[in-house]
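Run log, item B.
One chain of 278 residues. Sequence copied directly from the ordering sheet:
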Amino acid sequence: MEHNRPPQRRGKQQQQDPLKVLLIVLLLACFILLGVYLLRDNTPAPADTGATTAAQTRPPRTEPTKTSAPPNTEAHKTEPATAAPTTAAPTTTETTPADESWKLVLVNADHPLPEGFTVGLKELRNGHHVDERIYPELQQMFDDARAAGIYPLINESFRTAERQQEIMDSYIARYEAQDMSHEEAVKKARSLVALPGTSEHQLGLALDIIAEYDADSTATWQWLKENSWRYGFILRYPADKVDVTGIDYEPWHFRYVGKAAAEEITERGLCLEEYLNK
């Protein structure tokens, strides 16, 4: 009976061995999984190789830059501050009258031509020139004179300083030829011709006028004396004003001064010097 017990123990032992193996396998599996988990958390990140990814190429987000709007745009418009209503006094716009001082520039022996004086010229027939601003009135005066049977002709108009000197020299030579001394010839010439820089002809506002078809210009001068003021012209050197103007009577010499001044000068019997010193 004792010889049959060992086989029974061996069979029981064989039944327990698979359970041990399974338990060991399970334990090993647990250790392996735990080891893998620990190894994954402790693995260092790969070194930078220079390769870029979509996340790396995306530009970093920045705040938009605030720019100022250009002047005179809606961005610069602001609502006006609210204030209590007020009653403003009515405003008037004053217009500055056009400068007409050029019409009354005084040029004589005591009042030389203004320094740096220039003038815009209008060319007439026969090569004469006048200040372009007086041309409309001058043309109207000549048209009306012709309509009245008077035919005026311009004999002298604008002169340069050089031309004025030539005229002065010719008068001096003429009087010296009449046996006058040089001093006497100069004095006589200066009573008739202004020195360069002191002649109204350099203004472009003065004209010497004669008759076009009649050697006797008396009728022409008389018509101009009576009517030239209507167009802004005056007889510049009257016979009774020689002591004021310093120039002998010249019935042919007319000067533009503007219609308002010409009318007053004619009505009151003045010369330009007296009118400006009134």
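Observations after the first pass:
- Residues 1-7, 42-96 have pLDDT under 50 and may be disordered.
- The two ends are 177 Å apart (CA to CA).
Flagged for discussion on Thursday.
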